[in-house]
Amino acid sequence: MDIRALQSFIMLANTLNFTRAAELMYISQPSLSKQIVNLEDELGVPLFKRNKRGVELTVYGKVFLNDAKEIINQWEKSINHIEQVKYGDNGFVRIGFIRDFPIKIVPESIKLFTKENPEVNIKLKEFGENECIEVLCKGDVDAVFTFWEGIKNSEDFDYLIIKKIQYV
User: Fold this and answer.
1) What is the spatial distance between Cα 124 and Cα 45, in angstroms, rounded to a whole number?
2) Bridging pattern class, strands 92-98 and 121-127
3) How far apart are alpha carbons 157 and 132 in whole angstroms?
4) What is the C-alpha separation between 48 and 81, in angstroms, rounded?
5) Which helix H or strand E contains 90, and what residues bound it?
6) Residues near 118 by beta carbon (within 8 Å), at least 6 away in sequence
7) Nearest alpha carbon to residue 71 among 39, 49, 99, 97
8) What is this structure's pTM?
9) How confident is the model at residue 28 (pLDDT cuts 50, 70, 90)?
10) CA angle 49, 51, 54 (to 5 degrees)
11) DSSP label at residue 57
């Protein structure tokens, strides 16, 4: 079992679609299938029930999903701790962004920030829309790029509107 297999399992559990999960993981669908089969073989239980309409989590899959998320979170925290030691506490910012965020806004904003703060190292992490706020609340990231309008009403967060986007 490796981190990539756990990440693939979580992505498939979130999408319940092999093709979509493979696309989001930037791997082929057969590679994803093989990772899942290997994981199921290693655990000795089926994690997904496959049918003509797609897949759904089994009871084992539902239990393992929570554990897999905790393992990934702990792994990422460990990586962050190492990076904090390597770069120093004040020189590191973890930024989350949602998958569907307009592609140019994140790099343009990061470029402006690093121009003004060249001593700060940035680590970007992609999340689903609901996940992005969740990891911010848990302190797993320091800032997020999000569409969430509720942040304006939150006393827990400061926010900055970078760009107003009108969808038609």
Assistant:
1) 34
2) parallel
3) 13
4) 34
5) none
6) none
7) 39
8) 0.55
9) very high
10) 90
11) E
